[in-house]
């Protein structure tokens, strides 16, 4: 079964054709990041307008690379939640029109379910159940993936998402949005013990808190400036990456032990972080657990992951009709139309 999938929930307009949830026939991503960089973050209205401009071309390119016409795919899938609502609606409306005109089933996909499914594209042997650490610009979750469409949230951030924390720390040392990647890049020339950082307390055994870390970095920067010794960006980057990776891994390992999971999956933009990947690798090797991580090409937002999850949603009967709407927020546990 070949699914044409569309993603437009933030600042990437993407389309892909995915076969049976596992094989990428084509994947096209048009990023708006250079434009949003000028403003230090994603400007929602600009994002919506750019999606409107790019979505036809990006979809045509994905179909062309797959050697198919819209009539030749078996279904159309789209990210319908969560995300910047104006941006989500561009993809939803476009997918609805396409599905209607080509007379194909329409499959709404939860964006964070998609991030988890990126792993199915890279690891043919991976099947639920497993424990997933999902860390992106808007989410930080520890989720028990019981089945392809059956999730239990064990822990989550009580304030900022991990990606937000990376971006804010990066901004403190003058790195442009989205700072997480840049912070990671310079961190390997730094000393991870140079700056002590707190571990903010979060209510709930598997929950995280990151807003205190942001304040700690701001305070470090102010104090250093007052002493006339500005922060050393590489040292701050190394200290921050090392510390956040440790927090994320410790909670993940605790949850895995408690729930008897020996398969761990990383997902979301922050799963590209080299410190987190290394910490998880080391932790899983020590425990004898199997670790699955998406390749760097699939950690950020893309439509391939949406097409992968869409296949399992379709098998479970989760299609939508022409009344489908987009939603700015939605739990990973919720189902469209219920
Ligand atoms: O999953 P994603 O592409 O978009 C959302 O769904 O939010 O995640 C974007 C986030 C940004 O905050 C970005 O800075 C962060 O992922 N990120 C990283 C790295 N690459 C991307 N954070 C730390 N280290 C990285 N290598
Ligand atoms: Zn995302």
Protein architecture, described:
- The protein is of the alpha/beta class and 338 residues long.
- Helix content is 43%, strand content 19%.
- The chain has a five-stranded mixed sheet, sandwiched between helices. Strands 8-7-6-9-10 form a five-stranded mixed sheet, sandwiched between helices.
- Strand 7 (140-147) and strand 8 (150-156) form a beta hairpin.
- Helix 2 packs parallel to helix 3, helix 4 (111-122) crosses helix 10 and helix 8 runs parallel beside helix 9 (274-287).
- The two termini are 25 Å apart.
- 52% of the residues are buried.
- The site of 5'-O-[(R)-(carboxyoxy)(hydroxy)phosphoryl]adenosine has 20 residues, from helix 5 and helix 6.
Give a summary of the structure in a few sentences.
The protein contains 10 helices and 10 strands.
Key terms for this structure?
338 residues, binds zinc ion, five-stranded mixed beta sheet, globular
Overall SS class? alpha/beta
Helical coverage, percent range:
40-55%
Q: What's the count of strands?
A: 10
Distance between the termini: 25 Å
Work out the strand percent: 15-25%
């Amino acid at each position: 079964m070949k699914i044409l999938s569309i993603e437009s929930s933030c600042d990437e307009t993407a389309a892909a054709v995915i076969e049976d949830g596992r094989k990428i026939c084509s994947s096209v991503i048009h990023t708006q990041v250079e434009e949003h960089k000028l403003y230090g973050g994603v400007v929602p209205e600009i994002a919506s307008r750019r999606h409107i401009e790019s979505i036809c071309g990006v979809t045509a390119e994905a179909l062309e690379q797959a050697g198919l016409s819209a009539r030749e795919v078996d279904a159309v899938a789209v990210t319908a939640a969560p995300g910047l609502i104006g941006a989500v609606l561009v993809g939803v409306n476009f997918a609805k029109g396409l599905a209607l005109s080509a007379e194909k089933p329409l499959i709404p996909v939860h964006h964070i379910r998609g991030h988890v499914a990126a792993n199915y594209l890279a690891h043919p042997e991976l099947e639920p159940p497993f424990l997933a650490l999902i860390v992106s610009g808007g989410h930080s979750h520890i989720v028990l993936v019981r089945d392809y469409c059956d999730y239990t949230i064990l822990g989550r951030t009580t304030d900022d998402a991990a990606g937000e924390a990376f971006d804010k720390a990066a901004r403190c040392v003058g790195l442009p949005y989205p700072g997480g990647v840049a912070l990671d890049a310079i961190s390997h020339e730094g000393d991870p013990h140079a700056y002590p950082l707190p571990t903010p307390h979060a209510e709930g055994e598997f929950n995280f808190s990151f807003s205190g870390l942001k304040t700690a970095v701001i305070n470090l920067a102010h104090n250093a400036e007052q002493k006339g010794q500005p922060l050393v960006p590489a040292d701050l980057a190394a200290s921050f990456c090392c510390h956040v990776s440790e927090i994320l891994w410790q909670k993940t390992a605790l949850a895995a032990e408690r729930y008897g999971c020996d398969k761990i999956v990383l997902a979301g933009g922050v799963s590209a972080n080299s410190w987190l990947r290394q910490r998880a690798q080391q932790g899983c090797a020590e425990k004898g657990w199997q670790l699955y991580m998406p390749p760097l090409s699939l950690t950020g937002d893309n439509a391939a992951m949406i097409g992968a999850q869409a296949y399992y949603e379709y098998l479970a009967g989760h299609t939508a009709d022409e009344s489908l709407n987009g939603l700015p927020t939605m739990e990973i546990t919720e189902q469209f139309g219920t």
